[in-house]
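Dear support,

I submitted the protein below through the web form. The confirmation email said the job was done, but the results page showed an empty box. After a refresh the structure appeared. I'm attaching both so you can tell me whether what I see now is the final result or a partial one.
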Amino acid sequence: MKELLRKAFSPILENFESGTEEYVYKTSHRVILIVMGIIFTILSTAVAFMASEADNMGYYIPVLIFGLVSLVTLVVGFLGNERAVASIWGNK
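What the results page shows now:
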């Protein structure tokens, strides 16, 4: 199942998993990344709920941005390898 999901999200994962330089990986980085993804999902859902009563489509721009951030962080957090997680945090 994980390999099927990795194939489905390969355009996102390839961007973060590429490279040959050294990286620093800690397990806590993955945990924090997943927690951040959950927080952004909650934030996106809350903003979408509040914007549903608005008549201006501009209110959905934060929903899109927070939703994309949550998607990327959750995909890298759950499916990415150690290099991808380290790439989000910076390789220094």
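Response: this is the final, complete result; the empty box was a page-load delay. The mean pLDDT is 90.
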